[in-house]
Each structure stands twice: as C-alpha cells, then as structure tokens.
Fold:
Amino acid sequence: MARDTKDILKKNRLSVTASREKILNLFLDQSGALAHGDIEKRAGEKFDRVTIYRTLQVFVEKGIIHTIPTADNSILYALCKDDCEEGHHHDHHVHFVCRQCQNTYCLDNVVTPDIKLPTGYSAKQIDVVVEGICRQCSI
Amino acid sequence: MARDTKDILKKNRLSVTASREKILNLFLDQSGALAHGDIEKRAGEKFDRVTIYRTLQVFVEKGIIHTIPTADNSILYALCKDDCEEGHHHDHHVHFVCRQCQNTYCLDNVVTPDIKLPTGYSAKQIDVVVEGICRQCSI
DNA sequence: AATCTTTTGCAACAATGTTGCTTTTTTAGT
DNA sequence: ACTAAAAAAGCAACATTGTTGCAAAAGATT
Ligand SMILES: [Mn+2]
Ligand SMILES: [Mn+2]
Ligand SMILES: [Zn+2]
Ligand SMILES: [Zn+2]
Structure:
C-alpha cells in the first residue's frame, strides 16, 4: 500500500478510506484497464459491491480514472495519466484491446487523430479503440 | 412491411418470421442506431424480450447489423451498409453520438483512419466513436 | 476527545441478460 | 395443399448487473 494513494486521494479532496486506497492501488499496480467485476474479484470479497460502484463513480468525477468504450456491454476503467481535472477529462489517447489476452491498455503515447466530419457535425470528444494483438501476446 | 425484409432474410438463409421482419424494418426505417431497449419499446410489446435478444444475435452473426461501442454500458446496433458477410464484418466507418439528441449515427462516408501503433502491437479492427453535436441539432 | 461530515454496508429493488424446455410457426418434400 | 422435419418463439426460472434509501461506522475537524 504505497504512500501515493493517500496523496492522490488528498490532492483530490477525498477522504482517505480503506476501500478507496485498495481500489486505487489496483489501478496503480496494473497496466491494463479494469472492469467493475475485476475489481470485485481482486479486492478479495472485502468490499460491498455498492461501495465499488460509488468509488468508481467518484474517481471518474474527480478525473482519477476514465472510462473506455467497449462493444460488449462492460464498462472499463483506467488511470488517467493526462492532466485530467474534476469534472473535465483530457484523455486523448488510443485504447487497445488484445484479442488474445483480452486485456485492454491505454496507449498513452498514441494520440487520437482528428476526424474530418461531414458539414453540420461538430466533435467534442473522439474515442478510438483498436482491437488486435498486444506486444506481450505477439512475442 | 416492405418486400425488402423478406429478401434480406432469405439472402442470409434465415427463415422469415414476424419478429425478424419487424425488427429488421425498425432498422431500415431508421437512420440512427438502436439499443435492445429501443427495439423492445418500438416493437410494441409484441415480442418476447428473449426473442429480441436472439434475433439481434443472429443478425450480428449474419452481418446484417453491427454493434457500436459505447462508454455507458449499452450495446447499440445499426444496419451494415458495407459488404459484411456471415461471421465477418467490414464496417470501417466512424460512429457519431450526439450530446443533444442522444442519437448515434453511422457516418458511412467517414472512413476510420489508420493508427500508428507502438512496435509489437498489431491492429485487426479500429473503432472510432465521435461525440458532439449532430447536423440536425446544430441547425 | 467530541462533534460534525462523509462513507460504508445492508437490504430491497430494478434492469438486463441467459438458459432449458414446450408450443408454435416455418420450411421443404410429397 | 398436406405432412413431416426443422427452426423459432414464448414462457418460466434464474443469474448478473446496477440503483436507491437508510442506519451504522469511519474519517475529518476543532
Ligand atoms: Mn485510457
Ligand atoms: Mn455503423
Ligand atoms: Zn495480449
Ligand atoms: Zn443530435
């Protein structure tokens, strides 16, 4: 349980609690994205499902984590490494879903491209999800 | 109930049934994407929920409709206008979610860009979802 | 340490999705 | 058109996932 978690929570004006530290640590210890279900399993039966839902919601609102769109009805969450703020995210990176290991990664260095839209449409946010084989799995 | 639906179903070697025709027609009559819930409402209480689930599943497998990734845990479906085949989709267009009317549209003429990935990653499929204001809503 | 505030856990509920089985409908062959 | 075989629909039961209100517990502040 690194000291980091307390700092991150305090910096975001959140009270420091066991579940918040635990859940935040899962994200810090992990390169990929996590679904609510993953957290429920890895947290080790310790926390109520409702607490996890509420914690994830607060983390998203504070700009600590962001959601990743998927085509299969599961919301994924990953740490924000960009300069996200409360109520305002700035995640402009591409997400990668591996068909083999099933993990989803933030490709923090791959910036979402601009998209030329037809007249009349204006873009506020662009999400790119690439599906394929990740580095680990192509070795 | 246009003649089209029967043809489309037959072309895909599916038996022609009332629910399949009804659901297929909802997609044909509609420019935007539909969620399972939308279909349940618009079909007018006529069909069992299970039938709708199974119909959507079959349509996706046959390449008649495709799913659209969302960040809010709802699977959206839209007609395939590209040359999709059974078990193999070829939808390479961008999807647009309007923040105002909440509709999701296939921008069939906007092709998904290539993404340069870090070494080791290989792409099989690229999904782009643009969020903003649609043409209708910006008038 | 005492108080005030926030978060947690619980229970109950709602919504969504799945499965097995029976009945009904469709299809294909006569 | 009639019949037999095959496929799909409907139903019920269940599983999973997400939501809400409220009392108890824990955290922050003085
Ligand atoms: Mn990300
Ligand atoms: Mn589409
Ligand atoms: Zn992988
Ligand atoms: Zn709109």
User: Anything to note?
Assistant: Residues B 98, 100-101, 103, 134, 136-137 surround zinc ion (ligand 4) (CB under 6 Å). The CA atoms of residues 20 and 55 of chain A lie 7 Å apart.
